[in-house]
Design goal:
Blueprint lengths: L11 H4 L7 E10 L4 E12 L3 H15 L19 E9 L4 E9 L11 E4 L4 E5 L11 E4 L2 E4 L3 E5 L13 E3 L1 H7 L2
Antiparallel strand pairs: 1-2, 1-9, 2-4, 2-10, 3-4, 5-6, 6-8, 7-8
């Protein structure tokens, strides 16, 4: 198995921000293996904010991701995705829910590119495998858990809810990013 370079629920891993604390409450992932399209829907994005420095860092990261006026300091999908046919990102501000969602889409060229996400092709089974990390709370109707791996045949779809079991001591620092985005959006 490959080292996981891009974590579906951690926004920074898509943009090359290694120390980002921005994560999604729930992330829905669908990989169409026929069309070779990966769809990542990060829902209710939040961060752990304990001081003004954290707050400024979050605001700056969102500004640099979503605002073309950031110019040379703009954060774009990391160079790793240059070898993909195309990639897109969209920030969705849901006023009624005071929630910020991030939608990412990629068209990969070879199945080996799924290794970036920790997904391997298993030739002997003609299936795809991904390690099971219990803390990620993975749910799927298209995969089967065997030993410590999820196996997928014809379709790869799952949701991740890593914040579901967040230790209570961190809850006071958990801040939704809707208000931050409203302050910096173009």
């Amino acid at each position: 198995m490959e080292v996981i370079k891009i974590i579906f629920f951690a926004l920074g891993t898509f943009f090359g921000v290694d120390d980002s604390t921005i994560v999604a409450e729930e992330t829905a992932v669908h990989i169409n293996i026929t069309e070779q399209i990966i769809t990542v829907d990060q829902q209710d994005v939040f961060a752990l904010v304990s001081n003004e420095k954290d707050s400024l860092k979050i605001r700056n990261t969102l500004y640099r991701i979503g605002n073309a006026q950031a110019q040379e300091k703009r954060l774009t999908l990391k160079e790793k995705f240059d070898t993909y046919a195309w990639s897109t990102s969209e920030i969705v501000s849901r006023k009624e829910a005071k929630q910020l969602d991030i939608k990412l889409k990629f068209k990969y060229v070879t199945k080996e590119q799924l290794n970036d996400f920790g997904i391997d092709y298993v030739e002997k089974d003609s299936s795809y495998a991904m390690i099971n990390i219990p803390a990620w709370n993975l749910k799927t109707t298209t995969g089967t858990l065997r030993d410590n791996y999820w196996y997928f045949k014809d379709s790869i779809s799952f949701t991740l809810s890593p914040a579901k079991d967040m230790p209570k001591k961190y809850l006071p620092f958990k801040k939704g990013l809707y208000d931050y985005w409203e302050q910096v959006k173009p």
